[in-house]
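Input sequence (137 aa), recorded before submission:
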Amino acid sequence: MNRKKFFALLVSDGHGSLETLRALLKSQGVEVWASSNCAEAARLYEQTHPELIFTAAQHVDGTWRDVIILAEKAAVPANVIVVGRHQNVRLYLGVMDYGAFDFILPPFEPEPIAHVVRVAAEDVRRRREAQAIEAAA
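Predicted structure, token format:
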């Protein structure tokens, strides 16, 4: 297996299940930057260009939709994974229809999270390579 390092931005208020996810990601070798709101996430995104963005549904200055818009408008693509607090079919459908790469729920198990990270990061790296080839043409 190709063991490339992945980079993730975690958009959360620093409490609850996303902190558990942060610890799990770090234990799997994912470098994680954290922001506590959408504005800070936008600044960090431009500085770090992570492959993945994990976001809670609500923030003090926006929602998961704002995070997806951030990723869509950025010069460098990223995949957004929305983290719900509990099973919510309506939220799941909205998130997926709006363009999120995935929707995950706690409890976070190592194997499924590793799979999501690998697939999402490989997808975004392919898109970045295609973007670079197109820009060079």
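Checked by second reader. Residues 110-136 form the longest helix (27 residues).
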